[in-house]
Amino acid sequence: MEKIIEINIQRIADKLKEPSTVVTLENTQTLRDEINGLIDGFNQQIQANNAIVGAKRQKQAECNTKVWQLIAFTLQNDVTAYKAKRKSVDDEITGLMKLITDGGKVSRGLELEIAELNKKIVSTLPTITSINTLLGDSGFQGLLLREKRGYQNVYEVVRQAGQVAEKLSEGERNFIAFLYFYHLVRGGHSDTEVSKDKIVVIDDPVSSLDSGGLFIVSALVREMIEVCRNNADYLDNQVEGDYIKQLFILTHNVYFHREITYNQAARYRYVSFYTVNKAGNNSSIRLCTRQSQKVPTERENFNPVQNSYAALWSEYREVDTAIPVLNVIRRILEYYFMQLCGYDGVNLRKRVLEEHRGKFIELVEGGQPDYTKYHLASAMLSYLSANSVGFSDGLNYVDGCADINLYRAVFKLIFEALQQEQHYNMMMGEEAE
Prior knowledge:
By secondary structure, the chain is mainly α. Helix content is 55%, strand content 9%.
């Protein structure tokens, strides 16, 4: 358009210079009409845009509706499939809920039936028989239990002649009470409590008991401990049931404590030891744990009650110099093999160094056998006959070059040679859980 106008201007200029010249101007009507058409179009778009801006809310609603219509059209097959699947799942849930409701009704009916049947089968007779057996085994002569006539699930203590026992000693009362408590833990006060789970607290049950009663009570308590253990670990446990969910045992009798805890310290995950101290009329409780001797980043239990033999093993695990470790080894070997197992120095050396000679000799390929462990075992066993409180020749032994790990390895080999690995592992806290 601009070029056409420039041409016309130029031609008019030429005409002005030479009026006699005939010039013809280019036609601009068509282009002008096209431009006007474009302008009209733009104006119409502007007016339409202004109309949209003026009706913004209405147009936004229309846009939103059209977008969702487009989405619905695009996804109509997926939506149809989802609705069908949802209906199927809802129908299945409704069916399962009905089954649960019907099952609950059946379960409540069975519970009522079980309660009625329990009234017919629950009896004190098996408990009475068991308690009478334990009374006889423990040496409580002349005492028996029998069902009380006219009363359901009630017993009474009688003498052998049949008369009701009166004026029982404190030990007899405590022992019978514990036996009743033991069977109560296994059952319940009534037929509806037989299968209930329990938290059991036992407070010094061996007061006024003789050694026979103490050992029987200890055995029954150990059985309850194993029942409680079943809640955490069923591995190699011969006791059935897990109806004891927690068990608390309180005692100041060290013999009873030792009888029920000699194998419990290693069960760190589900066994804890506490000491209760009273000072200034105030009691304090201390948890008996310490840094693990095998894994320093972990904690382990320790039993606050130990006998002298157990204390020797504790010292053996902690000592780290040659002279003390040899002294502890001698005392352990003397006590266990000579006092408990009945060996004397001669046959002990024979069993270890002659019958199991190969355990202590290491063969070296292409060289002479290594007798280091054999000679060390011989020295340890010879050390048993030395006077533990006397003096020899006044010479002092320098242990700077001693290999403590070698001493410990040979000490363990002696137990293995005499087939006492289980005792060694137990005292070292390595028994299998």
